[in-house]
Every structure is written in structure tokens, then in C-alpha cells.
Amino acid sequence: MRSYYDVLGVSAQATSDEIKEAYKNKLFAAHPDKSSQSSDNSEVTTLKQAYAILRDAVSRKQYDAEFKHDLKVKGFDVTADGLDVYSLEDFTEDEVDGEYVWFLDCPRCTGHRSMSLTETDLDECGTADGSGGFMIVVQCSTCSLWIKVTYAVADD
Asked: Are 52 and 44 in contact (CB under 8 A)?
């Protein structure tokens, strides 16, 4: 998926000034009067859309959240290690048959409560994550998505 950052040729951490400068340069290069190649009008439209979203802090923040969500729903790797990372705090906690269970709707297929972890799973299967916490990998019961879940052990 091509992001508005890709359209403007900037990183997602680009400053407002860097975005503005990139927009001006790309627009100038794409303008039919300035370009030696015939430019597609849709390229100019896309540049304008990208700049309109990314120049405003509020719309940029909303765009970033929606783009990240779209990547997850479509199954693209966001973390570069093959698994998207979630916190146990993203899950809904419930008690079933005297044991705590954490549920999450799948971010890809949106299966209701299709990802679940029990206290026993966390106690017996979690591994140290190298930063003082723990992690465990869980699969959606509806589709093939696997995610990494990080958590901390509560002091008793």
C-alpha cells in the first residue's frame, strides 16, 4: 500500500516544513508546463490530497491511525519481524470458570473475541521479552493471523 508519505517522498517522521518542501518540489516536477514528460493529472490530484492531509496535525494523526489499521486488516507486516505487536491491555478481560481470560477481536478478520489468552497461557507459555516484561504469540481462531502480545507480571 502506498502511503501519502510515499507520494511526497518523505518519512512518516517528517516535519511540517519538510512535508511542505517536498510537496512544492513534487508539484513543480509534475506540473505539465514544467515537466519534460507528459504528466498525468491524477498525479497532481494525489499530491494535493497527500499535502492536504499531512500538513494539518489533526488530520495527519487520524490518517496515520487509519493507515496503520488498514495495514493490519489487510495482513501487512507492520513491525518487520513478521508479527504485529499488541499489549495485553488491548484485550478485554473477563472471568470464565474461575480463571481470568483476555479476549481481542481479530484486527484482520474482525472475528469477535477470536483471540484469547488465559492466566495459564501467560504463566506457562510466556517468555521474557528482554525489556523486563513478557511476550506470547497467539493465533486468531477464525483466520490465520498470528500476533505477539506483550505483558508485565503483576506484583502479588
From this structure: no
